[in-house]
Write a structure and sequence with these properties.
It is built from three helices and 13 strands, in the order βαβββββαβββαββββ. The chain is α+β, with helices and mostly antiparallel strands. The chain folds into three domains: about 80 residues, no CATH class; about 60 residues, no CATH class; about 35 residues, no CATH class. The protein has a five-stranded mixed β-sheet with strand order 1-10-7-8-9. Strands 2-6-5-4-3 form a five-stranded antiparallel β-sheet. A hairpin with a 3-residue loop joins strand 4 and strand 5. The radius of gyration is 22 Å and the shape is elongated. The two termini are about 35 Å apart. The model has no long low-confidence stretch (mean pLDDT about 85).
Length: about 200
């Protein structure tokens, strides 16, 4: 597994960080992996607002679309209570993640903050791992966005000692997905058994 970089995400988040340093509260138009709360997270009714604003967020304030960011800037009304997601709003920082492939663990060191995720599924591919980690970081309001994954081999297991050296095989159709857990073959090398763990992907 090679080092994975999402340079587009890095550039996008850097633009957001620059606006946040100007004191702006940036809100994503939708859940886009940028680590920002999305418009749908505000928890208040959105209504069309008079110029120069695009939307009113209940009585709390207004949203105005910034085409350069592809996101909204929030302006609070003086004396009004902020929605919970904005009361705990945190500026973003970019960070890199170290992926221990054998232990399926991701470690993130960002300043004094250290975040660890276990049970990572590296066989999904780096793009999907990055997306899932950033979704979880946003959910816990860490204020951290990962743009780079650096795989590490801890030497605990050699590829030849693993049942599936590269990635766990999976089967998928329009309704279900299953990962192979093991297999057996007879003396003539015909497949006699295969173990699968799966789940439905649609109803």
């Amino acid at each position: 597994m090679n080092v994975y970089e999402d340079k587009y995400l890095r550039e996008k988040v850097n633009r957001i960080i620059a606006r946040q340093k100007e004191g702006k509260i940036v809100i994503a138009a939708y859940k886009d992996g940028s680590g920002l709360p999305a418009r749908e997270d505000l928890g208040q009714e959105l209504t069309r607002a008079a110029y120069p604003y695009d939307y009113a967020v209940g009585k709390a304030g207004f949203l105005n679309y910034d085409s350069e960011l592809g996101a909204y800037l929030f302006t609070a009304k003086v004396g009004e209570k902020l929605p919970p997601v904005l009361a705990s709003y945190r500026p973003l920082v970019l960070a890199e993640a170290n992926l221990d492939v054998q232990d399926r663990r991701i470690n993130i060191q960002c300043g004094e903050a250290s975040v660890t995720f276990t049970g990572v599924q590296p066989w999904k591919g780096p793009y999907e791992v990055l997306r899932e980690v950033n979704e979880e970081l946003a959910r816990i309001n860490a204020g951290i966005v990962i743009w780079k994954i650096i795989p590490k081999d801890n030497g605990k297991a050699k590829p030849g000692n693993r049942l599936f050296p590269e990635a766990i095989p999976k089967l998928r159709n329009g309704q279900a997905m299953a990962h192979a857990t093991g297999y057996a073959y007879d003396s003539d090398h015909f497949l006699a058994y295969i173990g699968l763990v799966g789940y439905k992907t649609s109803l």
